[in-house]
Amino acid sequence: MFTAYVDAERSLPGPVQNAFGDRASLVASAAPCLAVTDDTGLLSACLSVPAPPSPFAEWGDAVRLDRSWFEPTGEHVVALVRSDLFALGEYDGREQTAFHGFDSELKSQHSKGGFSQSRFERLRDQQIDSHLDRCRAAIEAVSPDRLYVVGEGSVIHEFEDLAAATKPVDATGEPDEALDDAVRSLWTVRLRVP
Fold first, then answer.
1. 101 and 60 together in one domain
2. In 3-state terms, what secondary structure has residue 9?
3. Domain tally for the chain?
4. Residue at which a domain ends, from 70, 92, 110
5. Of all helices (H) and strands (E), which one includes residue 88?
6. Order of strands, sheet of 191-192, starting from the edge strand that comes earlier in the sequence
7. CA dist., res. 2 & res. 43, Å (int)
8. What is the predicted pLDDT for the residue at 112?
9. Which residues are in the Actinobacteria/chloroflexi VLRF1 release factor domain (predicted)?
10. Does the model's pTM come out above 0.85?
């Protein structure tokens, strides 16, 4: 059995290309993922990994899986960041031990009179930047050892320097409800067949 964790930041390693052959490009499009195949080509799968390991590629007697890649273990923090909402949960395994959340008033509509669309967009961008600064301060105040940042794809990249992993999720509602939804999405594993 061949198992590899393929990072999206790098080109597809040679051993992965060799193991998957004609299907290697499908693995590349599924990355980041845990890619699994056998030497006969009968089995072929790519799994999303919520808490990814460092990239590796290896042949073995069995598929290499670690439970901690797929479910919450130990103490960790999940931060939901959207341009208008922030929610942070501290967890021990699956149990939430603390919660902090807030939302920000964002100008959502441009009034037709008074000022230009470009001024409206500039003010909105400033509001979002200010909100993201508050989010970063809230995360840093908790000082997590293991942080997962989920939320709006256009803003979560701002937290890659702090996070073990980031993942865009569609979570709406009040901060506590949105965080619950985001945590479910974070730990959901998606299967793709190359």
1. no
2. coil
3. 2
4. 70
5. strand 85-92
6. 56-59, 2-6, 33-37, 44-47, 191-192
7. 10
8. 58
9. 75-192
10. no
